[in-house]
Input
Amino acid sequence: MTQRTERTIDFPSELIVEGRVQILVPDLKAYGVTPSNYAPSRAPVFYNPVMEFNRDLSVLAFGAYQNMMGHEVRICEPLTSQGIRGIRYAAEIDNVSQVLLSDISTKACELAQHNIELNHLETKIVLKHSDANRTLYNNASPKKRFDIIDIDPFGTPVPYLDSAIRALKNHGLIAATATDLAPLCGVHAKACLRKYGGKPLRAEYCHELAVRLLCGYIAATAAKYDIGVQILFSHSDDHYIRVYTQIDYGAKKADKNIKFIGYIMHCFNCMHREIIMQPFNCPTCQECGAKMDYSGPLWVGPIADPSFVTQILVQNQKTILRNNTKIAKRLTLIKAEAPLPPTYYVIDKLSGKLNLPAPANQAFIETLKKAGYQAVLTHFNPRGIKTDAPAKAMHRVLRELANNKEL
Ligand SMILES: C[S@@+](CC[C@H](N)C(=O)[O-])C[C@H]1O[C@@H](n2cnc3c(N)ncnc32)[C@H](O)[C@@H]1O
Ligand SMILES: [Zn+2]
Output
């Protein structure tokens, strides 16, 4: 087995340990790649060590899903690169019947095959040198469909979502990563419209809008096939967003979801936001009368299910990972913010707009709560507050805190 490896892996590589597996990966130092200067395309096979947190969370979320469903799961990861994700799923998640991996790159497949053998998982993992859509469509007939599909591309997952939804069993789970934050966060708005069919907005909560644009796209794609969706979990980290969606067959389920596709109106003058479901005509802000901008169509429904997040937390407690503490903190925030309405306020942005000193997170939250509003921190931004308070109430609270400071 070792001899075979030496024959096929003809580029600088190193052995790493992640979760419960050992993986041979490109030696990024040899390609001048560092975490601060991350250009994965320089290496012959894609590998990003920073995504360990993302992979850890995926292992836990899929474990929680398997536990919730109570039956064996068959998983597909059709853009696998060196295989690290799929190999971890086979090694670390209970009751996995099979993992099907594929990649379009010959070098990636050679490395993935080496890593499958290195971890003695040849009987559990099938590897195909194939285009992701071909892999998925080859498994779209009812008896071949998967329980879980993980779409983890470099860039947008959009080209793979139709085939992934077709290749997923009823009540199956699809996880999709998007790293194309320039379009999704409004830097390249036209690309976002083209790919996701919704307008982004360069507001301070653009990462949440990115999640909602991707969720809206998944819901609309599923609806075409008379399939409804439930967003079980989503998060934003570093340079990417990731969404975990359970699907539910039935035209009525799809109709119900269409009602969660709407628009978020934003006033750049007073920062007021509004959710509307119907297309609009030059609306003005109810709070200050300024003309509003908008983002959408996008998903305005829940973007995490607190009970599913609790199940991921349970898995985190049962599993030893390098990221246990970070994961627990992130999940606790996501669980608390899940029931709050869309969008969040970034304290410094709001106080800057009003020329007032920026209060500490906790002081701001406590004052909002005393005024009768809900308020929690959001995982999207360390200075972000999710609340049901309108913009004018936020202004009042900021002024009150500034006055108290002067006293
Ligand atoms: C971001 S990497 C995957 C990273 C991997 N999931 C991980 O956790 O390390 C994306 C991979 O998709 C592969 N790829 C790109 N286009 C593809 C296609 N159309 N079909 C299959 N694989 C493709 C690339 O060769 C690359 O290895
Ligand atoms: Zn306004």
Summary: Residues 206-224 form the longest helix (19 residues).
